[in-house]
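pasting input
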Amino acid sequence: MEVTTGARTAAAPPSAPDPHGGGRPATARRTRRRRDDSAVAGLFLAPGLLGFLLFIVVPLAGSALISLYEWPLFGTPVFIGLDNYTKLFGDPAFFTALTNTLVFAFVYTALNLALAIAIALWLGTRMKGAGIWRVVFFLPVITPMVANALVWRLMLSDDGVLNSTLGGVGIEGQSWLSDSRFALAAVIAMSVWQSFGYNVVVITAGLTAIPKEILEASRIDGTNPWQRLRYTILPMISPSLFFASTMTMIGAFQVFVQAQVLTQGGPGESTNTLVLYLYRNGFSFDRLGYASAIAWMLFVVVMLVTAVQFAGQRRWVNYDK
Amino acid sequence: MHVRHLTTTVAAVAGLAVTLTACGGGDDSTSTTGGPLQLYTWVSSQSDREQWESFVSEAQKEDPDLDVTIEGPSFADYWTKVKTRLSGDDTPCLLTTQAARAQELSSLLMPLDDLVEKHDFDLSEVDPSMLEGMTVDDSLRAIPYDAEPVVLFYNADAFTAAGLTPPGPEYSRERFLADATALTTDDHKALAVTPGMFIPAAWATAGDASWLNGDGDLDLTNADFVAQLQDYFDLVAVEGIANPPNAADAADVAQQAFTSGDVDMLIEGPWMYGTFDEAADFTLGVTIVPSPSGRPHGMTAGSGFGIAANCDRPDDAFEAIVALTSTGVQESLAASRGIVPARAEALPAWAEGKAPGAADVVTALLGNATAQVTTPTWNQVETLMTQYSVEGYRGQRSAEEILRTIQDSVGG
């Protein structure tokens, strides 16, 4: 492709001949043309790059800068160096929110993927109405999260549908949202229900891409279904699983709405998450600097976890067909 | 494409960006160039807008030249957006605040003491507890238009049916507990409670306790306040006269339980009178928040008008506030919107259409009232109390434990 060639040439080492110097005319013409190409490439890249700069790089840098200040919404910011970070490392609520977020992220991602794989395999068994079921499982994904969370709040409240149903069969219900032993589990359950349908679609796409000959060959070799899943299907859909696990994990670290609507971070701090804590510090407690420091810690944690996932993929993700 | 074309395109894009930026600057009706004064306040609904318009139209009867425009976000967003609104250009001169938020907004609100003196504004006519609530660092930041002592609403029919005497302007804790126990059955509770600090603070005030020390700093862990809060938690956890609230319950859950008859009593602000009276199909009664002695000690909540710290027409703004908080305006708003006026002389207007004795209760509470004075960190206290009180009502944590945690988190 011409654009790519131009861009690569533009990044050529300094030993390339100077177009304004005494090089041969043919070389000068070629270089000039490559320069024109790089201008075109720059133009094509500009919209994306501009967006990336404006909406990612500038806010990131701005957030890093704000985190070094005591920055109220109204009034003059005061430079305090790394004090926000020092305070953060001495703040028990931050560590509780971090722990809650980590527990949420790993448990939610694991349950989400396990359920999505199970459902995708079930839908792939030539069952009747698979398409309808796929839509049913996908519906929560396209429903607004706040609406879902409100419905779950009504279902899980002390006198909600779940406890009424349990009471009907003689089981005493629990305060699912107001008892710190169950609240985080309730938030995870709602979140998994809300979003596993997306991964069902991703994994289904991976499953349908497996050549039938391979599965037939493994059947002829006398494998049982469990062996086929373990040694054929899972390795074959590992790129889909890698994509699903990475994206689900990144999304999980940003959990906010569920905790805000279902439990408001309570009882106590049992469902307080990093983004909820960040939001409250920034926009309720008027501490934008501190909120920015939390945002940066979240950024670092997500980067680390994602980096570990990418590093680990070499061991289990298989791109061979 | 040639470099010249690229340059042209980039210039065009940059020009467009500059144009768009310029378009985002809002209109030019600045408060600094004369003309109408802008009132920035909470406008959550059409009803809110009508209330503020009533203020202005009634105030225009006092001052026909008054020209005030109204803008603002919802109540929930107001406390954040007012800060960013004042950070930009074209800032409004008039603001509203609650007494409970006066500390939080103190840097936005101009001290009014000099203007009060200059304009000979008579503060003696205004409820003293609300003036105290609007005072930050010894200077007045807003002129209150209402003074609403928190009250106990009750279902008078339920009291009568149970053979109990409906309470009036005196109500002791002992009698309250006896009544509530009599009204509570296996599947019916007497009271509804909500997570958060507002109602517990009113309960503690009735018990003569405060969450502040003598210097006005946060002191949640003083023995009196802890004891009052534990008493309040115990109404649910020990006495069982109310169901514990769910973690994310807002005030409307308890309000709904009261108006639908699921519970018989609810502690709330008197501004809910009209709403409750309309929604309930029982006779609405009002009494004081029960106190150990039975005598009233009210916690007043209320709002007022202030002037933005960066307003450069403070005299115009103060004259507008004088008109907006005049007796005539308060009488009109008390009658039409049900606000309990900050001027005692306007209170008879509120009493019209209320149950017999309701005005006596409010008058009794205002006779011994303390404003809900807070600290700049009160929002954090309120948020943490919302999270932790759920466990307090369930007896899973003591008041002392919860208040210690909040005090340590929030600091001074």
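fyi Chain B is about 45% helix and 15% strand.
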